[in-house]
Amino acid sequence: MKKYYLPLIIGLTCLSLSGCSFFQKEEVKADESWSVERIYSEAKAALDIADYSKAITYYEQLEARFPFGEYAQQALLESAYAHYKSDDPETAIATIDRFMRVYPLNPNIDYAIYLRGLVNFHRDIGLLEKYIPRDESQRDPGAAEDALRDFNTLIQRFPTSRYAEDAAQRIVYLRNRLAQHEVNVANYYMRRGSYLAALNRGKYVIENYDRTPAMPEALVVMAKAYKVLGMLELSEDSLRVLRINYPGHPGIAEVAQTEVQ
């Protein structure tokens, strides 16, 4: 039966080796006679069919040959998008930053800021996570914080931008996710007996992520941490806010069962 598997093995081996001529990439090179319009058209055509590598190559050649003018500016911005879609967030961010630095008055600067937010929004998602979802609040918050900053900048600078509505929705999602992350860390500190660290995390949620679903959990952490630390008045203050705003929350009972150390 081994002979039936031989073609499959050969095929898989060929796929893994760059030397298989069938899979060699065709050379992408703009002809010397092509105008800037022609090069841009070829790049845009490749971008539209998701051939991002080809599009990037044409955009780079356009910039090299015609470094000034509207086409060069648009090529730089669209190449940033191509890098983003090619799962190359570092280059995408660097390209966007260069675009905003060199062309601060470009009419598409709002899109550049929005694209930067999108890159950061998806930045910490690994290959496996695209197919095996996990709790978003368990992921490193760094990229989410950057995305939140980008989307806030967009709305502050360009409140009427066509991208502002989507940015606003992403801000809500990011604030909820970051708030829950802080609560997760606070609960971890509570389990470790690092009550002051837990308390500070809970206070951070209250001060920076108001009106998020994590608010009641943050109040529970604060009330419990204050109680364990012997700050009974502050614990009661947190508990009172919890009772008024979230009556019936199970954390109320948890605080009552918490013992002073």
From TrEMBL:
Main subcellular localisation: membrane
Topology relative to the membrane: Lipid-anchor
UniProt keyword list: Cell outer membrane, Lipoprotein, Membrane, Palmitate, Signal
Keyword presence, Lipoprotein: yes
Localization terms from the record: Cell outer membrane
Domain Outer membrane lipoprotein BamD-like: 36-237
Entry function: Part of the outer membrane protein assembly complex, which is involved in assembly and insertion of beta-barrel proteins into the outer membrane.
Assembly: Part of the Bam complex.
Family: Belongs to the BamD family.
Entry protein name: Outer membrane protein assembly factor BamD
Organism whose genome encodes this protein: Methylophaga marina
